[in-house]
Design brief:
- Helices cover 31% and strands 29% of the residues.
- The protein has 209 residues and is an alpha+beta fold.
- The chain folds into two domains: 47 residues; 155 residues, no CATH class.
- Strands 2, 4, 5, 6, 7 and 8 form a six-stranded antiparallel β-sheet that branches. It has a two-stranded parallel sheet with strand order 1-3.
- Strand 6 and strand 7 form a beta hairpin.
Length: 209
């Protein structure tokens, strides 16, 4: 009887150890699967089209949609400049531009597939340029927008993601007054369009009418 009990205990121990050994590969597989998922996300974020740069510098030409670039400030007048680290470096772009309204921007977030894939910074506390923080959404590829001219709706293309429910054209269609609303729409639009959307804070607006 005593020998039977010992045999039973030994058998239970063997079964227990066998189960633990079988669980370990499963855990490793889960970790590997998780690592592969993280790598695939990183690779996906690098595989979108970068918009062309119109305004460049001799020393650096990082694209505003470059997730690895260190600089965050750029110039936009319907076309993109390269990134710079100081707003003073944008002066030559102002001189080159023939556009009536131009923007100096600082990038904050990059949205893709309905989520934020990269954060470059946070909204500044300073009030700009109309005594309040303002934001803009730009796409890595051109979008179809609509503007109203003499009660006629006309389609146009631009990199701008217009404020929801507004016709393209006036500043009110380009400028977002609330960061959370702007960021949320960037994610929504990236999911619906399949494009990559850049959320930026407006540092200045030059209206040269």
């Amino acid at each position: 009887m005593e020998g039977y009990k010992k045999s039973a205990v030994t058998l239970l121990l063997l079964i227990y150890c066998s189960c633990q050994v079988q669980k370990q590969p499963h855990s490793t597989q889960s970790q590997n699967a998780k690592s592969k998922h993280q790598i695939s996300i990183t690779m996906d974020t690098a595989n979108f089209t970068l918009p062309p740069l119109k305004y460049k510098m001799d020393t650096q030409n990082n694209n505003p949609f470059d997730v690895n670039a260190k600089e965050n400030i750029f110039f936009y007048d319907g076309a993109f400049s390269c990134l710079v680290s100081d707003r003073k470096e944008l002066n030559s772009f102002h001189d080159q531009s023939k556009t009536i309204v131009v923007f100096e921007l600082e990038r904050l977030d990059l949205a893709q597939n309905g989520g934020i894939i990269k954060q470059f910074g946070h909204p500044e506390d300073f009030k700009s340029p109309n005594n309040k923080a303002q934001f803009m959404l730009l796409s890595n590829e051109e979008n179809i927008s609509y503007f109203n001219r003499n009660e006629e709706v006309i389609a146009t293309t631009s990199y701008l993601v217009t404020v929801q429910g507004k016709f393209y054209g006036p500043l009110s269609s380009m400028v977002w007054d609330d960061y959370s609303t702007c960021q949320a729409y960037a994610q929504k639009f990236s999911q619906e369009s399949g494009k990559t959307i850049l959320v930026s804070q407006i540092l200045s607006i030059s209206d040269r009418h």
